């Protein structure tokens, strides 16, 4: 399992790589995961990397950590304007930013290559945060669901299901069968967004429209 210090080394290894994503976008690994060990001597950059604690961090308060930055009145960001928050974080703190939400450390990186390095060390059986609501529903509706699915299962159960399904799902013929239905949904969504624009060419409650689109997909 990667220690915080080694995790910092992984992140630090990509600090000087040019970012391929637009600046407002950040790659966020928001689910916890168990990873395999990292040999810091495999790469000179890893050996020279700084520890996890030295990653630039948003100021924290007791108990709530840095969650205050999203709160009304005292906060500086709006959850509905996350792209603007990411722009500001990147400008103030740099390519890699750490914040503490309650007892959890969250690391944002604006460098996709860094996420590639991290994901390669997840191991065969990554363990991520549990989607409790989906798990409970699928366990309750056993007449509809034979398993919890790849979004719910953990460890070896997850790997067994994924290894069986990915062979089928990655075939071009399988993907093509979904192409035209998905294209129809996308076209309808674009037309609806166009019709909902106001005088400033903005869409009120755009997030709600995205939820509807995601539900239909």
TrEMBL record:
Protein known as: Putative cytochrome P450 49a1
Gene3D superfamilies found in the cross-reference section: Cytochrome P450 (1.10.630.10)
PANTHER family listed in its UniProt record: CYTOCHROME P450 (PTHR24279:SF120)
Pfam family, one: p450
Family: Belongs to the cytochrome P450 family.
Cofactor: heme
Species in which this protein is naturally found: Stegodyphus mimosarum
GO MF term set: heme binding; iron ion binding; monooxygenase activity; oxidoreductase activity, acting on paired donors, with incorporation or reduction of molecular oxygen
Membrane-spanning intervals of the chain: none
Keywords: Heme, Iron, Metal-binding, Monooxygenase, Oxidoreductase
